[in-house]
Amino acid sequence: MNKKLIWTVIGIIILVVIIVLVKSPKPVTNSTFTVGAVLPLTGPASLWGETFKNGMDLALQQKTGISIIYQDSKSTAADGISAYNFLREQPIDLTVSELSIVAVPLSKIALEKKQPLLVSLVAATHSSIVNDYTTRYYADPTSYASPAFTDPASPVVKGKKIALLYRNDELGNSVKDKIEELSKANSKQIVLEESFMPAEADFRTVLSKVKSSGADAFVFVASTPGEAVGIVKTASQLNIGMPIIESSAVFADMDTRKQVSGIAFYSSSYDFSLPDKAVDFKAAYLAKYGKQPNFGSAFGYDIVNLIDQCKNERQSLQACLTNVKSMDGAAGLATQVAPGDFVVPLHLEKVN
Known about the structure:
Strand content: 15-25%
Largest sheet: 8 strands, mixed
């Protein structure tokens, strides 16, 4: 075989290979929208992680094209950041997180790395949590603090002097600042203002100060069931002699209320807790998990439904979220009060 024929044959082979490659089916790209969820699955706030995850999983049953990878924040900022970094090593389209102590630092990382983040159960100030890459779907400090000052049944409305106890973190300080602002606007005097550290267990000393403060009402801001139950039980044991108002919605969880059965107080709560709200969601949750849901479950459920609306907009995810002006979900009517900030209002309920 002469050289000319050899090169002709080689040319034909190359041409055939090129034609085969061009006409071969292109690899199918992954169309699944992947969510990385950094939740407190263990630690003092694990109630919120478990119920939020349950709500997400319940919504996921009704969706296609969405998958969720869960990581444990252990209710701490350091572990939350580690979980976030682990997830970001994988092909994640969006990260979801909850609790101010974890979500506030993550929002700064999300902004720096230009990675979309969706947070819930975070009542920090708008400026400390919402940015060009972070969207909140929950409530804000105003929503937490206002019911104590606006509900006609609230003891704060008729009283003049307030004793205030708050958790010394992003959540507590944000709500504390709003309570101070509302007190001034409504001619109330804060005669005692004390803070406690996260996961505090002994409230006897500080509540003894509350008892002797001369206040007409005692307002507190907690984050975990352990804190809220400890404060209410200790206040009852000390017979502090004034109405108790929780301005952080921990007792919006009905199982947490059962731990302080027989003690009368007031708590901010979502419309979700009303018996005629989210009836279908509550029934579906009970059927799947064998227990009643709380508002954390409802927010987890609603967030997956929000993601479903924007899952096909990977390149303009933030713009899509911003274009959703309101959503009537299981947790209640969420309205985008500012770009990237969905807020569900609360009301005041008398407990026991």
